């Protein structure tokens, strides 16, 4: 009977240990475009155009903000341990540039070296401009409103009748 209770206690302890450590596994995720090297290598400058690139690679992740001369395909692999912040492990940015006629000019690849690490400084964002106190914010406009003509009508003089004569 004692041997059975020891085995049961050992089994319960091992089960609790397995469940407790299962939350500490690495989580791997993929975000964005699935890069197929063969398809990407088939895009040739001077030969392909927008229609053939879209037929080969699909719609881009995003396009240039002004105009549609640049298409971007973004792919990123992330890794995290349990509840920690995910960190990029691999990244590919495929940049396809077109000329005004819509033909491919260049195909560039960028990797993880393009990821910038940004460290915030404190809980406030520094900005340029005036530094005003609370009282300046509240009482700073007293006397400034309507100071040009005191009436808001442009400051002209009124000499009589309704049409100014």
UniProtKB/TrEMBL annotation:
Pfam families: BamE. One of its GO terms (biological process) is protein insertion into membrane. Keywords: Cell outer membrane, Membrane, Signal. InterPro entries: BamE, BamE-like, BamE_dom. It comes from the Bacteria. Residues 32-106 form the Outer membrane protein assembly factor BamE domain. This is Small protein A (TmRNA-binding). GO terms for cellular component: Bam protein complex. GO terms for molecular function: protein-macromolecule adaptor activity. The keyword Signal applies. The keyword Membrane applies.
């Amino acid at each position: 009977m004692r041997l059975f209770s020891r085995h049961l206690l050992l089994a319960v302890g091992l089960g609790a240990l397995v469940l407790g450590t299962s939350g500490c596994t690495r989580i791997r995720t993929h975000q964005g475009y699935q890069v197929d090297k063969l398809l990407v290598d088939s895009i040739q400058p001077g030969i392909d155009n927008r229609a053939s690139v879209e037929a080969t690679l699909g719609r881009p992740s995003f396009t240039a903000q002004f105009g549609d001369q640049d298409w971007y395909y973004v792919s990123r692999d992330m890794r995290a341990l349990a509840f920690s912040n995910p960190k990029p492990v691999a990244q590919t940015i495929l940049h396809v540039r077109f000329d005004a006629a819509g033909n491919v000019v260049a195909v560039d690849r960028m990797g993880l070296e393009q990821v910038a690490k940004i460290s915030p400084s404190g809980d406030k964002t520094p900005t340029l401009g005036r530094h005003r106190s609370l009282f300046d914010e509240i009482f700073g406009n007293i006397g400034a409103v309507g100071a040009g003509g005191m009436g808001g009508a442009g400051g002209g003089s009124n000499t009589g009748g309704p049409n100014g004569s």
